[in-house]
Write a structure and sequence with these properties.
- The chain is α+β, with helices and mostly antiparallel strands and 143 residues long.
- It folds into two domains: 53 residues; 62 residues, no CATH class.
- Helix content is 29%, strand content 32%.
- It has four helices and eight strands, in the order βαβαβαβββββα.
- The strands form three sheets. Strands 1-7-8 form a three-stranded antiparallel sheet. It has a three-stranded antiparallel sheet with strand order 3-5-4.
- A hairpin with a 2-residue loop joins strand 4 and strand 5.
- The longest helix is centred in the last third of the chain and has 21 residues.
């Protein structure tokens, strides 16, 4: 649950400054070795409840299509698949790539956007943000 103070002014009175590094453009797929994956290093277990359709699909995928080595123990409709260390896990790992952070300014706050995000150069964003903070401090001082 997110806790937010109820704003005292209308959404049009606010500006939002943000930094973005979207996973789609600022990361790339990575191997288990690159991210020091614990499952890769130590092995792992996956459980499938074969009394349910999704559990049967999971078990069939592991057995027939995963391409991984494992041992399986089935008991009371539940299969425990044990995967030894040294093989790719099922997680999709990603690592950051060397791309500049995206600096954004938009009108509004969490309730609504009053103008589309403006992409800014880092130095301009910092300057604009500082000027905006200074303006807010002046307004607060005046009361």
């Amino acid at each position: 649950m997110v806790f937010r103070f109820e704003p005292k002014m209308p959404v049009q009175a606010y500006q939002t400054y943000a930094l973005a590094r979207p996973a789609s453009t600022h990361t790339r797929p990575a191997t288990c070795q690159e991210v020091d994956c614990e499952a890769y290093r130590q092995g792992w277990q996956t459980f499938a409840d074969v009394t349910t359709p999704i559990g049967r699909r999971q078990a069939n995928y592991i057995r027939l299509k995963s391409g991984r080595h494992f041992t399986a123990v089935e008991e009371a409709g539940r299969v425990a698949f044990t995967f030894p260390a040294g093989q790719r896990c099922f997680a999709e790992h990603r690592v950051p790539i060397d791309r500049p952070t995206i600096y954004l300014k938009r009108g509004g706050d969490w309730r609504a956007t009053t103008f589309a995000p403006i992409r800014m150069r880092d130095v301009d964003w910092v300057d604009d943000f500082a000027n905006h903070q200074s303006h807010l401090a002046d307004l607060a001082e005046r009361g």
